[in-house]
Automatic annotation (TrEMBL):
Keywords: Signal. Residues 1-22 form the signal peptide. It comes from Filimonas lacunae. It comes from the Bacteria. This is PKD-like family protein.
Length: 474
């Protein structure tokens, strides 16, 4: 019996040894040759209605048979668009937005596939240039300046067959900062007509979308727009009828309700038009109550929450009490998310300048820096326009002149620009080196970079009426 077990073991060992015999064959592996792809860019600009041609040069050394497939996908497409051929040649009929392109190259001789990605940015005639809001003989006008300087005046009425509401005040471009690539999706033409409050238009074709009144879930019968601003969510926020309103953004940014107004922020307050939006990790607002003449705290915890004067006042300099300021506010601005400046008049008409720093993210403090009488208060009128740069320089209009104000030295200097005795109706900071001023029928671009005196570097004529606001797209 023992002998049988030994024989069985030997037979199994021999079988296993023969099964594990190493194959010493001589094999040569060769990686399939990949095609060379030339003349294929990463980004293409396509004008809606024009031809889009992408013609890459694809070559391979072994004369293999290749085929090309093109796919285009985007947020407004239910499924990818698919094309075949050595080149992509189409009439671009998609929207003025960003599309992802995918090229698949197939070697039909061995089945190998190769992939290349690219992007398409759709454009229209209004994708680059300057949109101008103006007032002509009491009528609100929207015009467009092309990059070559030519003007399409009164374009809104020509495209929409209707007039805009009266009393224009602002032109706001909405950008969703967290969506790449960043692009203006629409404009809000803000008006103080008492009924509509303004009109939203598509930034790429200037066609009407809706009125501001219809941006409410429950449209009001009347409304007075005190001040509205755009924010980083691509929605509106601001003061209407003395109450704070905020565009709903807790949903998909393509949803029909995105950016709409609900009920105003609850609380016992009546806001000044001037407010500060600080886009910190947890955003907050600084408001000013016109009745109690106090600075207010509003935090954005998903939605705005009113805290009023629930903050600690630190007044080591003995400057002022933020909970009892005693001024009628005429302007307020925060620069570089740091110093805040406010300008206002007391009961006697004396104009004061305030500077302060807030921390409304905890600890909730309001630190005053100073309160002082403003030099040359006679320059500030009811029609004064304000702008400021990141280096804490203010520019303001006064009648037919524009002045530069440095709060550090308290120096006020007129700019060199000559406006021909015409009142300045608009100021807009284009960038840190260029300020745009508006007078009757004209836009004047001023050089304000360090060391310059504010000379006119460019003039655009033919604006209908007096400019109110502009928005430039590059």
């Amino acid at each position: 019996m023992k002998r049988i077990h030994i024989l069985t073991f030997l037979l199994l060992a021999a079988f296993i040894t023969s099964s594990c015999y190493k194959d010493k064959g001589n094999y040569t592996y060769s990686k399939p040759e990949a095609p060379a792809i030339n003349n294929l860019d990463t980004l293409y600009y396509a004008v809606v209605g024009d031809s889009l041609v992408i013609d890459p040069k694809v070559t391979i050394g072994n004369a293999a048979h290749l085929s090309l497939e093109w796919k285009i996908g985007g947020p407004d497409l239910e499924s990818d668009l698919v094309y075949t051929g050595d080149q992509l040649r189409i009439i671009f009929s998609l929207g003025a937005t960003h599309y992802d392109g995918h090229l698949t190259i197939t070697n039909n001789d061995n089945g190998m596939k190769y992939f290349k990605d690219f992007s398409i940015q759709g454009r229209t005639d209004f994708s680059t240039g300057t949109t101008v809001l103006s007032k002509e003989n009491g009528i609100t006008q929207l015009s467009f300046i092309k990059n070559d300087g030519s003007i399409r005046p009164r374009i809104y009425e020509a495209l929409n067959g209707a007039a805009l509401p009266n009393n224009p005040t602002r032109l706001l471009g909405l950008i969703k900062e967290n969506i790449v690539p960043r692009a203006v999706t629409s404009y809000w033409i803000i008006t103080n007509d008492g009924v509509n409050g303004g009109v939203q238009v598509d930034a790429n074709n200037l066609k009407k979308i809706k009125t501001l009144a219809n941006n409410y879930f429950d449209p009001p019968s009347s409304l007075t727009v005190n001040n509205l601003e755009d924010n980083t969510s691509g929605t509106l926020q601001g003061v209407i009828d003395g109450k704070f309103v905020w565009g709903y953004d807790l949903t998909w940014n393509q949803a029909p309700i995105y950016g709409m107004f609900g009920v105003p922020l609850e609380g016992d307050y009546q806001l000044s038009p001037w407010f500060i939006y600080n886009n910190a990790a947890t955003p907050f607002y600084i408001g000013y109550d016109v009745n109690t003449k106090s600075f207010l705290r509003i935090n954005l915890y998903g939605t705005p929450v009113f805290f009023g004067t629930n903050y600690e006042s630190i007044d080591t300099a003995g400057a002022f009490d933020p909970k009892n300021v005693g001024l009628d506010l005429i302007h307020m601005k925060q620069i570089n998310n740091n110093y805040c400046y406010a300008f206002g008049k007391d009961a006697s008409g004396t104009l004061y300048e305030l500077r302060f720093v807030v921390n409304f993210n905890g600890p909730f403090t309001f630190t005053t820096n100073y309160k002082r009488a403003f030099k040359q208060p006679e320059l500030i009128t009811a029609n004064t326009k304000w702008q400021s740069t990141d280096d804490r320089i203010f520019y303001f209009s006064s009648g037919t002149k524009v002045y530069r104000y440095n709060p550090e030295s308290q120096t006020i200097q007129p700019l060199a620009a000559d406006f021909g005795s015409k009142e300045v109706s608009m100021l807009k900071l284009l960038n840190q080196n260029t300020l745009v001023a508006g007078i009757d029928n004209k836009l004047l671009y001023l050089d304000i970079q360090t060391g310059s005196s504010g000379n006119i570097i460019k003039t655009i004529e033919g604006i209908p009426g007096t400019p109110i606001d502009i928005y430039q797209r590059d």
